[in-house]
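for the writeup, i need someone to sanity check this before i put it in the appendix. the sequnce is what the collaborator sent (i think, or maybe the updated version? ugh). structure was predicted straight from it, no edits. if anything looks off just tell me and ill rerun, i have time this weekend
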Amino acid sequence: MCLAMFMASAIDISVKAVGGDYSTAQIVLLRCLFAFPPALALCLRDGGLSRIITPYWRWQLLRGVLAAGANFGFFYGIAHIPLVTAVLLSYVSPVLIVLLAYPLLKERVGLGRWIAVLLSFSGVVVVVNPQTLTTLPPAVWAILGSASCWALLSLSNRHLAGKESPAVLAFYTLPVSTSIALLLTFGDWREVADIDWIFFLIAGTAGSLAHLFAASAYRQGPAAAIAPFEYTALIWTAVAGYLFWSEVPDNRIWIGGVAILIGGYLALQTPRRLLRPTPR
């Protein structure tokens, strides 16, 4: 999951770099087109392209819709608000994963993990600033919707663990997003500058790897145990925000960030017996 979040940060940084110049649909389309070759290569390496033909096509269709919601929501939001703020808002996703892990997957969530997640979530609230919650702009709601889609997508990875390979799970995040983006960009295409092709290439390649690593993570451990590691993306986005956009976190953001990191550390210390999924 740490590797997945590093790759996800590469996507965020690349999209932020081009977000003000292209429509959300065009960004999603180009990111997906660049993601197809590495996704197919991973499937080929993981047993051949024939594995793409799956009996779980209904689940994969649902996952594709969730991936589209996550992509469109986050890419729209990240173009309109600061990078670190966008990522911190997306940390609602791990909280939703823990909340839904038991009713959807029957995975037991121990008291230690509840404390850790609540502490991390309190840090997110401090960073967002509760005084602004009544006047949230559309970009914020878009990211919150994206986080909800990502949470459900992550839980679907856990449900399909052992049934589908991580490479196949990563591949099926692309077709629906590509189809929707293609329809939305028809007649509304902007010529891409030479340097921006590099950003789209990074976003596409990192996207396939992020989904691969995330699927692998949820294949090997309970969803509630894996979710807190999504907080590691804060490190990379905070550094990039400072270096490329001169975003300097104030004291409130530092305080909230410390709470997030402490919560993640406490989650790591939770006894393994609390991580075992409840028998179905």
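Confidence is low (pLDDT under 50) at residues 271-280. The chain has 13 helices and no strands.
thx in advance!!
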